[in-house]
Amino acid sequence: MTIAPSKLSDPVVRALVAAVNAHDKDAFLGLLTPDATMSDDGSDRDLQEWIDREIFDSGGHMDVVSESDGGHTLLVNYRNDTWGEMRTSWRFTVKNDRISRFETGQA
Question: In the chain, is it the N or the C terminus that has fewer CB atoms within a 10 Å radius of its CB?
Fold first, then answer.
């Protein structure tokens, strides 16, 4: 069973998951601080390149399995057209109603 994005605790994380699932890159980018950073499997990545490749150019979709840490940490069944489906963890740093960093990787 998964958690509907509308039921996620943190409103910024909720909006980010909704933007991913709606394939709305502008909404996604609007939720990030101008200096936002990210990592994948423990390695920092170029944010713009990564989101294009792993989310928006490959039909990324998040089915949230669980949340913790006030909604800032998610366990997700993530899928895209490149890698298929995999269980991933996502941790978000939210500052002033925007995401300044997210870390993801296989769970």
Answer: N
What pLDDT, on a 0 to 100 scale, did the predictor assign at position 49? 98
pLDDT in tens, 42-80: 999 999 999 999 999 999 999 999 999 999 999 999 999
The torsion defined by the Cα of 48, 102, 28 and 107, in degrees rounded to 10, comes to 100
What's this model's pTM, rounded to 2 decimal places? Answer: 0.95
Order of all β-strands in the sheet with 43-45: 43-45, 32-40, 98-106, 84-95, 73-80, 61-68
Q: Is 92 helix (H, G, I), strand (E, B) or coil?
A: strand
81-84, long-range: CB within 8 Å, 24+ apart, which pairs?
82/53, 82/54, 82/58, 83/58
